[in-house]
Amino acid sequence: MSDATITAARRSPLSAEASSLGGVTLTPGAPLLRLILRGAEAAEAADTAFGADLPRRPNRSATAGERAALWLGPDEWLLLAPESDAASLPASLASALAQAPHALVNVSHRQTAILVSGSGVEPLLNAFVPLELTEAAFPVGMATRTIFEKAEIVLWRTGSAAFHIEVWRSFAPYVWELLEAVRRENAAN
Questions:
Q1: How much is the pLDDT for 169?
Q2: DSSP state of 1
Q3: Which residues, in sequence order, are CB contacts of 150 under 8 Å at separation 6+?
Q4: I want to staple 71 with a disulfide (CB 3.0 to 4.6 A). Which of 23, 43, 55, 83 is the partner?
Q5: How many CB atoms lie within 10 A of CB 29?
């Protein structure tokens, strides 16, 4: 019997390329390692193994180099890292968390990212996101699970005029097309 390992190549569900229109740029996110960590007791043990302190305050993020941890709930974090970390990071985290009750799930193939930036980013997103997105209400580093029209997303403000949207792959074209439609409408006015 063969011990062949099958590895699925991950391709973007978005056929579009980065584009700017009306002062807003849409960019498909690069492939990332995405892990969901559950377990309040596990957070401290995960800090060192992940290389960044997981945020303990609601709706916050923490970054270290190319890694980011987004607080999604009292005992839940979305961990983002370069795809090149996929061979070592899950094992390092599993080892560090061995003594703490937790769940660590790789969701890299489930999700993708859309990066949105530019001077009109807040009104563009507010066409579909029912949150106050001014920088005063939703500052840089804030992250939350919310809805985008009919799709569940994780919205993370990465800069004064920049957002990172994590969305299930099956909803990514839908979210992209809605953003495009509003960009075209705003550019025409």
A1: 95
A2: -
A3: 174
A4: 55
A5: 18
Q: Is the pTM of this model over 0.85?
A: yes
CB of 178 closer than 8 Å to CB of 128: yes
The order of strands in the sheet holding 67-73 is: 61-64, 67-73, 76-82, 32-38, 103-106
What type of residue is 188? Answer: A
pLDDT tens readout for residues 59-70: 999 999 999 999
Q: What is the pLDDT of residues 165-188, one digit of tens each?
A: 999 999 999 999 999 999 988 877
Q: How many CB atoms lie within 10 A of CB 170?
A: 11
Which residue range(s) make up the domain with 131? Answer: 22-188
CB 68 within 8 A of CB 154: no
**CA distances for 42 relative to 26, 174, 180, angstroms:** 35, 35, 40
- Please compute Rg for the chain using Cα positions: 17
Given a cut of 90, whether residue 151 has pLDDT beyond it is yes
How far is the first Cα of the chain from the last one, in angstroms, to the nearest whole number? 65
pLDDT for the residue numbered 17: 82
What are 115's two structure tokens?
Answer: 């990066």
Q: How far apart are CA 43 and CA 95, in angstroms?
A: 13
Structural domain contains residue 40: yes
Mean pLDDT of the chain: 92
Tell me how far apart the alpha carbons of residues 18 and 130 are, in angstroms, rounded to a whole number: 25
In a domain, 158, yes or no: yes
